[in-house]
Amino acid sequence: MDGDKYLELISALLNGRPKPEAMPNGWNKRKMNYDLLKTGFFNYDFFHNNAKQKTEVTDDVVT
Q1: Which of 1, 5, 27, 62 satisfies CB 3.0 to 4.6 Å to 23 for a cystine?
Q2: 17 in Cβ contact with 25 (< 8 Å)
Q3: What pLDDT does residue 28 have?
Q4: Could you give the angle at the alpha carbon of 44 between the alpha carbons of 39 and 61, nearest 5°?
């Protein structure tokens, strides 16, 4: 997911870093909240991970 890839960069641009090699300010709380939203609220893996998605058979559906 692109959000996973760029979360650290976006955080550093918005909130800065205390040292060049350190994680962005507020990183631990931001990462925890991001993961909670992704897995608990939006249920991202259920809707976007093909391995976990089930295909519905609609052969008998009449429209």
Answers
A1: 27
A2: yes
A3: 92
A4: 130
- Residue 41 structure tokens: 């609220």
Residue 25 one-letter amino acid = N
Residue by residue, DSSP assigns 4-62 as: HHHHHHHHHHHH--SSTTSPPTTHHHHHHHHHHIIIIIS-HHHHH-TTTPPPPP-TT--
Condensed to tens digits (0 to 9), the pLDDT of residues 9-53 reads: 988 999 899 998 899 998 999 999 988 888 777 776 676 665 545
Q: Determine the distance from the C-alpha atom of residue 60 to the mean position of all C-alpha atoms in its chain, rounded to a whole number.
A: 36
Give me the pLDDT at residue 36, please.
87
Q: Quote the pTM value.
A: 0.56
